Amino acid sequence: MDISLKTSITLIGAGNLGYHLGRRLHATGAEIRQVFSREAAKAEELARATGAQPVSQLEEVKSGAGLYILAVSDGAIAQVAATLQQHLPANSAVVHTSGATPSTVLAPYFPKHGIFYPLQTFSRSREPDFSTIPICIYSPDEELEGQLAALGRQLSHSVHRIDDEQRAILHVAAVFVNNFANHLFHIGHTILKEEKLPFELLLPLIRETVDKIETNRPEDMQTGPARRRDQETINRHLAYLKKFPNFAEVYRALTKNIGEMYR
Length: 263
Ligand SMILES: NC(=O)c1ccc[n+]([C@@H]2O[C@H](COP(=O)([O-])OP(=O)(O)OC[C@H]3O[C@@H](n4cnc5c(N)ncnc54)[C@H](OP(=O)(O)O)[C@@H]3O)[C@@H](O)[C@H]2O)c1
Description:
This protein is of the alpha/beta class. The protein is built from ten helices and eight strands. It has two domains: 8-162, NAD(P)-binding Rossmann-like Domain (Rossmann fold, 3-Layer(aba) Sandwich), CATH 3.40.50; 168-261, N-(1-d-carboxylethyl)-l-norvaline Dehydrogenase, domain 2, CATH 1.10.1040. It has an eight-stranded mixed β-sheet, with helices on both faces. Helix 2 (40-50) links the parallel strand 2 (31-36) and strand 3 (53-55). The structure holds NADP nicotinamide-adenine-dinucleotide phosphate. NADP nicotinamide-adenine-dinucleotide phosphate is lined by residues 13-18, 37-39, 42, 71-74, 76, 79-80, 97-99, 117-118, 121-122. NADP nicotinamide-adenine-dinucleotide phosphate binds at residues 13-18, 37-39, 42, 71-74, 76, 79-80, 97-99, 117-118, 121-122.
């Protein structure tokens, strides 16, 4: 069985990731057999874009697909797998797409299970470039793992075997560099909005922050009052932040942490 190109895929979940993954798999030649969303309109929209059959009841998911990809919320993976187990053959290949969830959540339901985790942030409104996205694959089943690697290479130049423990660690780091960094952008945006200054003024700075670390270590690129131990500036910033007590808390925690890392 070869999952790439010739094998049919059933996609469970039409959210931020399912929407893009399904369309990209279809565009690269994979046959998407069925697309599931509890919302019929969502399933139909993605099914139209992928040439698949839309389904809005898990009981309608047919057996016989070469691979079932569960792109559902982390908390729903086990429950969806338990429901699918009731009517799919026991030897069906089932993977999930979560960075934070071990592959073992699928083990009680499908012995042939694994992970197909694209390490990127996906929003429905933004078209991702899959070719550069690291695809982290894993399966305790050697044959399935080889097939997932082949499917990954169909989408991206960057395919990696990452086991459950490594993926959990990778996900912690990803939360820092994406979720927390984005939250800091949100704080900056809120402050400038409050003061009627355009956020666009910060965009070149944000871009340069990211560009610099393509070729340099982040710790070597750190600048700012916390790194310089410039207490007068820090005090002025904290005086301003009295109007944003929650942001002052974040400022203090990060300033302390930077100070501790550059003793
Ligand atoms: N978005 C990202 O940046 C990203 C990146 C890498 C990996 N992932 C992983 O991909 C998975 C999906 O994430 P997402 O961002 O696409 O989430 P999302 O946009 O919130 O979509 C979640 C999907 O899960 C379905 N779902 C939720 N609860 C369900 C239940 N009880 N039964 C059946 N289906 C249920 C939803 O179905 P309905 O359509 O019926 O509401 C929806 O299709 C997660 O495991 C996530 O960790 C996401």
